[in-house]
Specification:
Number of helices of chain A: 0
Order of helices and strands of chain B: EEEEEEEEEEE
Strand order of the largest sheet of chain A: 1-9-8-3-4
Number of helices of chain B: 0
Radius of gyration of chain A: 13 Å
Largest sheet of chain B: 7 strands, mixed
Radius of gyration of chain B: 13 Å
Distance between the termini of chain A: 38 Å
Oligomer: heterodimer
Chain lengths: 112, 112
């Protein structure tokens, strides 16, 4: 599986955009990039996923570089409730959807 | 999105005993997944539970230690057997809905 590299922690001011980077330089052409987050004392929550194109939903935007070696998760207007551990995961297409390899993630702290 | 209920939410157990964790989903799902999150660590898949067949265990996890039942399409149990302090973790149930995984809130287990 492609390995991902994320900064261990980041800070963001409330109301500002939070841009969380992820490096996946060994990604294959048919591997998807997924983002999940885990708020303290809760199970992980799906945020967004993509293959090649940029994606946007009600929670966030996912920007994938043209060479697909890195991506950025964007929370456009971070709130205190967005403080969580954010996981960037690369999922091979033939891997069970349930078999996700979680790394250490990025601890995002949103402060007032 | 699937709604997952896990019981108990937390427990403190004595070494050598066993604990059974229940996972209930509000819709029928083919596969259910059990993850473990050790203190300060990320999530690791224990096994995949299919209805009507034996669970499939990941490397490092065995059926004698983590027996799983899957009596129907909405319910599963994970038993942590002959517990030791090293089993102190959060255990999470998850299900797939299309291309996403949904997680329960987890069972926090402490073994004394």
């Amino acid at each position: 599986d492609a390995k991902t590299t994320q900064p261990p922690s980041m800070d963001c001011a409330e109301g500002r955009a939070a841009n969380l980077p992820c490096n996946h330089s060994t990604i294959s052409g048919n591997e998807y990039v997924y983002w999940y987050r885990q708020i303290h004392s809760q199970g992980p929550q799906y945020i967004i996923h993509g293959l090649k194109n940029n994606e946007t939903n009600e929670m966030a935007s996912l920007i994938i570089t043209e060479d697909r070696k890195s991506s950025t998760l964007i929370l456009p207007h971070a709130t205190l409730r967005d403080t969580a551990v954010y996981y960037c995961i690369v999922r091979p297409p033939r891997t069970s959807y349930g078999k996700l390899t979680f790394g250490q993630g990025t601890i995002l702290t949103v402060h007032p | 999105s699937a709604v997952i209920s896990q019981k108990p939410s937390r427990d403190i157990c004595q070494r050598g005993t066993s604990l059974t964790i229940q996972c209930q989903v509000d819709s029928q799902v083919t596969m259910m997944f059990w993850y473990r999150q050790q203190p300060g660590q990320s999530l690791t898949l224990i096994a995949t539970a299919n209805q009507g067949s034996e669970a499939t265990y990941e490397s490092g996890f065995v059926i004698d230690k983590f027996p799983i039942s899957r009596p129907n399409l909405t319910f599963s149990t994970l038993t942590v057997s002959n517990m030791s302090p090293e089993d102190s973790s959060i255990y999470l149930c998850s299900v797939r809905d299309k291309e996403k995984l949904f997680f329960g809130s987890g069972t926090q287990l402490s073994v004394l």
